Automatic annotation (TrEMBL), chain A:
Assigned protein family: Belongs to the GMC oxidoreductase family.
Gene3D superfamilies named among the record's database cross-references: FAD/NAD(P)-binding domain (3.50.50.60)
The Glucose-methanol-choline oxidoreductase N-terminal domain, residue ranges: 104-340
Protein name listed in UniProt: Choline dehydrogenase-like flavoprotein
Domain of life: Bacteria
Domain Glucose-methanol-choline oxidoreductase C-terminal, chain residue ranges per copy: 431-550
Cofactor(s) of this protein: FAD
Keywords: FAD, Flavoprotein, Oxidoreductase
UniProt key word NADP: no
GO molecular function: flavin adenine dinucleotide binding; oxidoreductase activity, acting on CH-OH group of donors
Keyword ATP-binding carried by entry: no
From TrEMBL, chain B:
Location of region: Disordered: 135-166
UniProt-recorded name of the protein: Gluconate 2-dehydrogenase subunit 3-like protein
Species this protein is from: Pedobacter nutrimenti
One Pfam family named in its UniProt record: Gluconate_2-dh3
Domain of life, per lineage: Bacteria
């Protein structure tokens, strides 16, 4: 009997376990396997094989039965995913059935999830921006949240490292607090964007700039992957491997080492704590198809289950030593949840470009980096926002009457109409302790687990910022000569930006943070958490590139500590 | 900015051709029991009627129209699969109304009158729809203002955070003509005929050029 157990244990033992296979999990697997560790990557959902399983990627518009729309049945089974645009017929299989994995919304929180190998790396927006010392110092300076335990110099070489591998296209700008990176050639702005850029930069004497979006789409062949074909169908999975995803990039690298085992349908329910060694000894997995419970063991555990997925796992990993969740002596686990607030800005009509058009569909827009509360600028709120947007020419004609129909109308619809330029702000939200998640024991999911309760709201600082987000956009568009400039604020509920961050923050002090400066749990030294849950502040930039850099950095540290027998 | 403008800005992002009713269905969906027993939603005559109505909205010009692009069956299918029961009922009622108006005015079925007569009937229904939607949006606006006045009486703390919440769209009445027109445009311009003949379709552009001279006769790019 004990022999059998020993054998089974040996079979289920690896050097490292990576929980999750999305952007950060893929990086953890790549780095750890390339450093020689035998790694088990656990993914709660199904496998999606690169290219072969992108079943809608090459479909033409008329090959979608509902032309992208959702059926009533899909709306019924996806009451959360349907709330905003990402969940459509084009990639509907990449989004969770909400009925199988409910959660409790103490206040409205839109939780977008994809359970499959690759996670949200298949559907992500690909915008990739570095944080700067402006961001790393904000918490310390204005007193919201806790101080970041790192500064730009600590992570800069790791941004270099991940950008070189992932392939980020962009334009170097040498603009304060907006660090340049290792860029592939930038995508091109269209003629309206070029004009708007020039006029904004002239008007504000480069105190405000506009640059082409920095995106994880390849503008040239890179690392054996094909370049972007300008179809703008990225979220279906790219058959050319032209954007960074686990499948296109980190997974093949990890597999090539011969050190990786991927196990789909493996829902990690708990991290198992060993009080003798004061370390985690492994994980308890629920096979999400067979419901079988299996234990796996390792020297190192990387937790990369998405911000709220990871925090749920830690909260659910209770023991006599950690009755409130693994490594939660600080009481901060589950707190300080953040997301970007957005969906407000302005748009206007460009005149004078009627003889110009575009060719190809660019899966990218423009970016205006943060300029508020920088240097001498002081507003009645703290932090700031950046803008994303772009110009385009569709079939809209001012002279077409409301609800027109008939032959003349039809023919007019086929002629390129007005150029429009829009700017939408992405604002930083503050890390409020009371914005939190906890386990709701009154409900269970399909796999018998309790569910997460989310209690999060934006507050006064975010609201005040939105006024600037609207008015500044209008002001810039007007300065750039746009006509009929209109502001909009469609409201923003937490979760909608799919940039949820925090709930297991890093910090120097174990008394008020969950992770140290290496993303290592203060209290459980062989557990590393390197997805969005680690973020002490949200900044206003799209965060995934930072998760990549933090993950590679943490993996490097973890392996060196392992070699020194420190963990 | 008021709600109507908010909806319009969404319309802008979607390409500008869709009505508020459709955007409501598209973005918000409706909580309804939906889909049950909708297989027999339309009679065979009504299916024909839908095809003819779509072909008046998008007729053959220098390129084939809605009928050639199979838009009629597409509309029937979309109503069955993607619309809540209330909208389905409103649409069936709208079809009955079209037929009744044709009988009243021309003493014939809509299927037996000519294109000019059909356009006349649909034009009247369109005008009525535009007016009804305007009245509805004015009413919503008045209600919103009244509500705002009530809210401003509450303490600031009580309302903190709430004004930012993503706007919940209230239930809007479903208008037959708006649905028919939206689905005709959607179905036509995403059909192979519409996308490749009325529009210009590039399957794999291979490159992006942000500033090309507009060539004579250049059609709008299909997406």
């Amino acid at each position: 009997m004990s022999n059998l157990n020993t054998k089974a244990t040996a079979q289920n033992t690896y050097d490292a376990i990576v929980v999750g296979s999305g952007i950060s999990g893929g990086w953890a697997a790549k780095e750890l396997t390339e450093k020689g560790l035998k790694v088990l990557m656990l993914e709660r959902g199904r496998n999606i094989e690169h290219i072969k399983d992108y079943t809608t990627a090459m479909k033409k518009p008329w090959e979608f039965e509902h032309r992208g729309w959702l059926t009533e049945e899909q709306k019924r089974t996806h009451p959360v995913q349907k709330r905003d645009y990402p969940y459509q017929e084009y990639n509907e299989s990449f989004w969770v059935n909400d009925l199988e994995c409910p959660y409790t919304e103490v206040k409205r929180f839109d939780w977008y999830r994809g359970f499959h190998v690759g996670g949200k790396s298949l559907m992500w927006g690909r915008q990739s921006y570095r944080l700067s010392d402006l961001n790393f110092e904000d918490n310390l300076k204005d007193g919201h949240g806790n101080d970041w335990p790192i500064r730009y110099k600590d992570i800069a070489p790791w941004y270099d490292y991940v950008e070189k591998f992932a392939g980020i296209s962009g334009q170097a700008e040498n603009y304060p607090h907006f660090p340049d990176g290792q860029f592939l050639p930038p995508m091109e702005m269209n003629c309206v964007e070029k004009s708007v850029k020039k006029r904004i930069e002239d008007h504000w004497k480069k105190a405000r700039i506009m640059t082409i979006g920095r995106t994880a789409n390849l503008t040239v062949e890179h690392g054996g992957r094909g370049k972007c074909q300008y179809r703008n169908l990225c979220s279906r999975g790219c058959p050319f491997g032209a954007y960074f995803s686990t499948q296109s990039s980190t997974l093949p690298a990890a597999v090539a080492t011969g050190n990786l085992t991927v196990r789909p349908y493996s829902l990690v329910n708990q991290i198992l704590y060993d009080k003798e060694s004061q370390k985690a000894k492994g994980v308890l997995v629920i096979d999400s198809e067979s419901m079988e419970h299996i234990e796996y063991y390792a020297k190192i555990i990387f937790v990369n289950g998405s911000t709220l997925g990871s925090t749920f796992l830690l909260l659910n990993s209770v023991s006599n030593e950690f009755p409130n969740g693994l490594g939660n002596g600080s009481g901060q686990l589950g707190h300080n949840l953040m997301d970007h607030h957005f969906r407000c800005g302005a748009s206007g009509r460009a005149e004078g470009f009627d003889d110009k058009y575009t060719y190809g569909r660019r899966a990218n827009g423009i970016y205006i980096p943060r300029y508020r509360n920088v240097g001498g600028d002081k507003r009645d709120y703290v932090r700031g926002f950046g803008y994303q947007g772009g110009a385009g020419r569709g079939n809209w004609h001012a002279e077409v009457a409301e609800m027109a129909f008939g032959g003349e109308f039809k023919d007019q619809m086929t002629v390129p109409g007005a150029w429009n330029m829009g700017l939408g702000g992405f604002g930083e939200s503050l890390p409020y302790y009371e914005n939190r998640v906890y386990i709701d024991k009154t409900k269970k999911d399909k796999w018998g687990q309790n569910v997460l309760a989310i209690d999060c709201e934006f507050k006064e600082n975010e609201q005040k910022m939105r006024i600037d987000m609207m008015n500044d956009a209008a002001e810039m568009l007007e300065a750039a000569g746009m006509k009929d400039v209109k502001t909009f604020d469609n409201g923003s509920s937490p979760g909608m930006a799919i940039h949820e961050m925090g709930t297991a923050r890093m910090g120097n002090d174990p008394k008020n943070s969950v992770l140290n400066k290496w993303n290592q749990m203060h209290e459980v030294k062989n557990v590393f958490v390197t997805d969005g849950s680690c973020m002490p502040s949200a900044a206003c930039q799209n965060p995934s590139l930072t998760y990549m850099a933090l993950t590679a950095r943490a993996a490097d540290y973890a392996v060196s500590e392992l070699k020194k027998n420190n963990i | 900015m008021d709600r109507r403008d908010a909806v319009k800005s969404v319309a802008f992002l979607l390409g500008g051709a869709l009505s508020a009713t459709t955007i409501g269905v598209f973005l918000e969906g409706c909580h309804s029991s939906g889909t049950k027993n909708s297989a027999n939603l339309f009679s065979a005559e009504q299916e024909k009627l839908i095809t003819e109505i779509a072909d008046i909205i998008i007729p053959t010009t220098s390129t084939p129209g809605a009928k050639a692009a199979g838009v009629g069956p597409f509309i029937s299918m979309m109503l069955k699969d993607c619309y809540p029961e209330e909208a389905q009922k409103a649409f069936v009622k709208g079809l009955e109304d079209v037929e009744a108006r044709s009988k009243k005015e021309f003493n014939k079925s809509f299927l037996d009158i000519d294109a000019k007569e059909r356009s006349k009937i649909l034009g009247v229904i369109r005008d009525e729809t535009v007016a009804a939607q305007k009245a509805e949006s004015d009413k919503t606006e008045a209600e919103r203002k009244a509500k705002e006045n009530t809210i401003s009486k509450k303490s600031e703390k009580e309302e903190a955070g709430k004004p930012m919440a993503a706007k919940e769209r209230g239930k809007k009445p479903a208008y037959f003509f708006a649905i028919a027109r939206d689905l005709t445009l959607l179905g036509y311009f995403t059909s192979e005929i519409g996308a490749t003949q009325a529009y210009a379709y590039l399957d794999i552009p291979g490159r992006y050029d942000g500033c090309v001279d507009l060539k004579p006769g250049q059609k709008v790019w299909a997406t």
